[in-house]
């Protein structure tokens, strides 16, 4: 089904490589802006079932390291809220009353370093 939609879009979509791997698509009108964009160093908290994770899926180790998959993709199809740094999932989080509790050990710097693993 998706191949048909992509084919119908014709030259309005352009295939791009991410970290040397093809198969990603962007709107053709956004290619120039995308190539000028610097990588983000921001740490972001995404909610459960966020499209950023659902799009490629938790089996994509470029996004979710294999060792983190079970924390992100839990039983009965539950997708946990995630911490993202430099485009990769570095951990999961949950909202408890008025504070954010990070699952796992260590400080935020450790979490950032682990997201690169």
Question: How would you characterize this protein structure?
Answer:
- With 117 residues, the chain is of the alpha+beta class.
- It folds into two domains: 2-36, no CATH class; 43-115, no CATH class.
- Helices cover 26% and strands 29% of the residues.
- It has five helices and six strands; from the N terminus they run αββαβααβββα.
- It has helices at residues 2-9, 31-36, 51-54, 69-72, 108-115; strands at 13-18, 21-27, 43-46, 82-85, 88-96, 99-102.
- The protein has a four-stranded antiparallel sheet with strand order 3-4-5-6. The protein has a two-stranded antiparallel sheet with strand order 1-2.
- The radius of gyration is 16 Å and the shape is globular.
- The model has no long low-confidence stretch (mean pLDDT 85).
- InterPro entries: AlkZ-like.
- Pfam families: AlkZ-like (PF06224).
Please supply descriptive tags for the structure shown above.
single chain, alpha+beta, 5 helices, 29% strand, globular
SSE map:
Layout: H1 2-9, E1 13-18, E2 21-27, H2 31-36, E3 43-46, H3 51-54, H4 69-72, E4 82-85, E5 88-96, E6 99-102, H5 108-115
Antiparallel strand pairs: 1-2, 3-4, 4-5, 5-6
InterPro entries: AlkZ-like
